[in-house]
Amino acid sequence: MKVNKALLVVDVQKAFYNEKWGDRNNHDAEEKMATLIDHWRKKGLEVIYIQHQSNDPESVFYTKQEGVEIKESVKPIGEEQIFTKTVNSGFIGTNLESYLREREINEVVIVGLTTPHCVSTTARMSGNLGFHTYVVSDATAAYGIYDQDGNYVEPEKVHTVSLATIHEEFALVMTTDQLIKKLAL
């Protein structure tokens, strides 16, 4: 079976510059994403963007505000596909699955924001739908959150645990360098 790959760039949007999110880990994530996007483009492989949009005027992802825009450092070029969504998964309410299947893409690499939300949810669905899925640990990032008891959980812990819950169950988790070597990019 021929292996066809796609790189999914999930929710790398200006909304994540908003101070409401607080502290974040992995401040070099966008640089790593850009490295992978560059490798992908040079190999002529598919780069696909997932963009979160909200119809709620109070949301930082509201369709009529700057926050909805994809960050400059990873912006799509040419005819690269953008799928818009209103929930965490890039597969729900979009044509992403049929788009991948029509192109016989069976290997999906996921980068983006944020690790515990849209990245992990998209990875879980990708794995469940039968795609061989990778999540790139240093090309994703998380913000600190509060648990159900009001205890603050540091961004690095959120990131690490989020990746651990999907590794070898829904996806293989590896760094940018590991992925480039494994996939011979």
Short account of what is shown:
By secondary structure, the chain is α/β, with parallel strands linked by helices.
Structural category: alpha/beta
C-alpha geometry? globular
| Number of alpha- plus pi-helical segments | 5
Rg is 16 Å
- Give the DSSP E fraction (strand runs of 2 or more residues): 15-25%
> Number of DSSP strands?
8
Arrangement of strands in the largest sheet: 3-2-1-4-5-8
Low-pLDDT residue spans = none
Order of helices and strands: EHEEHEHEEEHEH
- For the termini, the CA-CA separation is 19 Å
The whole-number mean of residue pLDDT values reads: 96
Task: Give a verbal description of the structure.
With 185 residues, this protein is α/β, with parallel strands linked by helices. Helix content is 29%, strand content 23%. It contains 5 helices and 8 strands, in the order βαββαβαβββαβα. It has helices at 29-42, 96-102, 115-128, 155-166, 176-182; strands at 5-10, 46-52, 81-85, 107-113, 132-141, 145-146, 152-153, 172-174. It has a 6-stranded parallel β-sheet with strand order 3-2-1-4-5-8, sandwiched between helices. A two-stranded antiparallel ribbon has the order 6-7. α3 (115-128) links the parallel β4 (107-113) and β5 (132-141). α3 packs parallel to α4 (155-166). It is globular. The protein starts with a strand and ends with a helix. The model has no long low-confidence stretch (mean pLDDT 96).
